[in-house]
Amino acid sequence: MSVAAAAAAACALPRKESLPPPPPPPPVVRAMMRRRRPSEEERGGEEAGEGQRWDGDAPLGTERRPRDPRQPRLPPTDAKEGEEEERLERDHFRRIINAFRYYGINMHERVNRTERQFRSLPANQQKLLPQFLPHLDKIRKCIDHNQGILQSIVKDCTNMFENKEYGDDGNGKITPASTFDMDKLKSTLKQFVRDWSETGKPERDSCYQPIINEIVKNFPKDRWDLSKVNILVPGAGLGRLAWEIAMLGYTCQGNEWSLFMLFSSNFVLNRCCETNSYKLYPWIHQFSNNKKSADQIQPIYFPDVDPHSLPPGANFSMTAGDFQEIYSECNIWDCIATCFFIDTAHNVIDYIDTIWKILKPGGIWINLGPLLYHFENLANELSIELSYEDIKNVMLQYGFHIEVENESVLTTYTVNDLSMMKYYYECVMFVVRKPENSN
């Protein structure tokens, strides 16, 4: 049996875990919550090195609604196993909230260490840098400002999912967070630059716009009723790409599982309604490679657009949870758009398999991104690192037809334009189609 035939056979067998996407209420976002057991990385495993893209870097807006009866909470096969899963999920949820709250303490400790080291210098050397300590005081004020924003982001987030509640959030007690969690949180702050600030527009133009252009080319409004073109954006981050697609009139759903992203995108998509009404200092964590001291405290403003400005009747939604678990209904989507996503897989073939199943016959998959496999250096996590050549061969064996291929799309990821050190990705972009005659 061919790979495509095997995938088709799998589709023929309905799964109990199937969660078809419901028609969402415009213009803001609904959320379904299904999370897998937290991985070693989520629990605080190895730290990523300099320049690493976190799995959580990769938005979810939610509003409080009664649980949709069409999306029942799926009972576990074993009661004890289910209780353990629930406990781990609650613990993970509260741990991420705690990381948001611990940010200020963590950053003040970092600045205090810098001050102690400066004061250990000989007095004549300290006199050479009269602005050093005043600069640290400015950083402290920026830390306090960021902490205020982070407090707003996690306020009332225990009830943000329509079919999942977490009760209390730990009663406000703040405990030390792991270095791993703090690094992910600092990285999340840079996502606001990428997705929702004017500063991030060049980056969005280089990696989101090519995807949008392919969508418009394949589903032009003079030949399609755009509201009936269903587009899915897995690994949606803070939601800007999915939002931009919905702005054009397409029915678009984003999906994200990182709670760092989900909390933050919920804040932007559901609580922000004026342009540039909030300010963040995303670069204060960078003490190296600054040309000027002032560069470290340069603010960004967000959101650069009103997230509630979707056109009347816009069909935009977000789901929270594991891509492969939530999306199992066959032949649902006209287009799947992945940006900096496929390397978040433990096994990228599983992603290809899921995408093949859920795409409609004749549907297209648009991808742009690198292959920086997120689980590569985690000893206790499965990680299959395939070259693009291998991925291409697998797609062809499934039955995809390649329509567009560009192996050299230069872009960045949450880049600091002011920094003396920048990372560039030479990404692969492709558009592949599932044949019309596929079952």
UniProtKB/TrEMBL annotation:
Keywords associated with the record = Cytoplasm, Methyltransferase, Nucleus, S-adenosyl-L-methionine, Transferase
Where is this protein localized, as stated in its record?
A: Cytoplasm, Cytosol; Nucleus
Q: Where is this region: Disordered?
A: 1-88
Query: Which residues fall in a compositionally biased region of kind Basic and acidic residues?
Result: 38-71
InterPro entries for the chain: CARME (IPR012901), SAM-dependent_MTases_sf (IPR029063)
**According to the UniProt entry, which residue ranges have a biased composition of type Low complexity?**
1-13
UniProt xrefs under SMART domains = N2227
- Which Enzyme Commission number(s) are on file for it? 2.1.1.22
The keyword RNA-binding appears for this protein: no
> Quick one: a GO cellular component term?
cytosol
Please state what class of enzyme this protein is.
Answer: transferase
Which one Pfam family would you cite for this protein? CARME
Q: Which residues form a coiled coil?
A: none
Q: Name one GO biological process term.
A: carnosine metabolic process
Q: Where is the composition biased (Pro residues)?
A: 19-28
Q: One GO molecular-function annotation for this sequence?
A: carnosine N-methyltransferase activity
State the similarity comment: Belongs to the carnosine N-methyltransferase family.
Described function:
N-methyltransferase that catalyzes the formation of anserine (beta-alanyl-N(Pi)-methyl-L-histidine) from carnosine. Anserine, a methylated derivative of carnosine (beta-alanyl-L-histidine), is an abundant constituent of vertebrate skeletal muscles. Also methylates other L-histidine-containing di- and tripeptides such as Gly-Gly-His, Gly-His and homocarnosine (GABA-His).
Would you tell me the protein name for this molecule? Carnosine N-methyltransferase
Tell me which species this is from.
Phrynocephalus forsythii
